[in-house]
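## tool: complex_structure
## caller: assistant
## args:
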Amino acid sequence: MKNLKLLISPLNDENPITVQVLGICSALAVTVQMKPAIVMALSVTVVTAFSNLIISFGRNTIPPRIRIIIQLVVVAFLVIVVDQILKAYVYDVSKKLSVFVGLIITNCILMGRLEAFAMSNKPFDSFLDGIGNGAGYGLILITLGVIRELFGSGSLMGYQIVPQQFYNAGYIDNGMMILPPMALITVGIIIWIQRGFNRKLIEK
Amino acid sequence: MENLFSLFIRNVFTENMIFAYFLGMCSYLAVSKTVKTSVGLGIAVIFVITVTVPVNWLLENYLLKAGALKWLGPAYESVDLGFLSFLLFIAVIAAIVQLIEMVVEKSAPALYNALGIFLPLIAVNCAVLGAALFMQEREYGTIAEATVYGFGAGFGWALAIVVLAAIREKLKYSNVPAPLRGLGLAFILTGLLAIAFMGFSGIKI
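## result:
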């Protein structure tokens, strides 16, 4: 029951992006299209889960004064592994994402969860917490990717969705959707909708 | 060499870290509830970037760049350690942030408590690593330029967070739909501010 809660609560009540305010930069940068958003979500889930696991194993031996450096080294190590795996198996996507995979190191979800959860909880719980938070992050990322690609380029996963007749009839893709400011405003609206359904998240 | 003053102005306004590159958003949105804490975090970020960019500039130019090891002797002229830059930059940033955390904890406990988790998070504030990587990419010629660039980037970030905090303080007195209160509105406000700052993008000084 408790384990299930660790997995489920980051999807809604404890969502990393819309509630904890972590990992915003990459959410804005990789969501112009849907495919990079999915790969990014998977990579972040893997790195969060395993860095949580490793740090949680060492939580009693890491000296608090130098914990940030140790955490960053563990994260950087995992990011390099993920980067190499992506290069080996999905080279075309990895080429598209290359910069952003490196920037997972500075994704605050990782540091946020390591500091707030893994440093004070058991390894298995921390692992589940990592997977849950990665999934919550991915949920928002993919939603954003769908909205921005559909309205910004009229396609999903690179396939055209809006029929050609619409364009012939004068429909124009919303170019604003591809620009970063619109990502911010879309996240704002997602938060609005989420809190409309989930009243206990409303701020006083 | 570019005029240092115009370099500073350009990095504060037209190439603002938040509104043009969207770096360092997490702490930007979470700590901008009151002007007082946002000024504290702003100063911390200015300080961290102004220190880390020149340090990383030295590393880049005397250790990492192709041919940077020339001062060791002609045999090292062809060594290129560029692939290490991510790791070294982040290590330098983490070390300096840890140092600042210790100093703030000792000298200003109130600020330390107000900043909470976001002080260690400066280490992974993408604005700080972003500034180091932009410094590398733009190849600033002298350490003075790198320092001014770092100060300008940090100052622009601090300016952005104080502006947002001031707007959010005023918004407390307005009648916002309940689910939009706080974070939701902060996102939309940042989006609108970013659109406004896009107006600076054509300016040449």
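## assistant note: Chain B has a mean pLDDT of 83. Chain B touches chain A at residues 22-27, 29-30, 86-87, 90-91, 94-95, 97-98, 101-102, 117, 120-121, 123-126, 129, 177-188, 190-192, 194-195, 198 (CB under 8 Å). Handing back to user.
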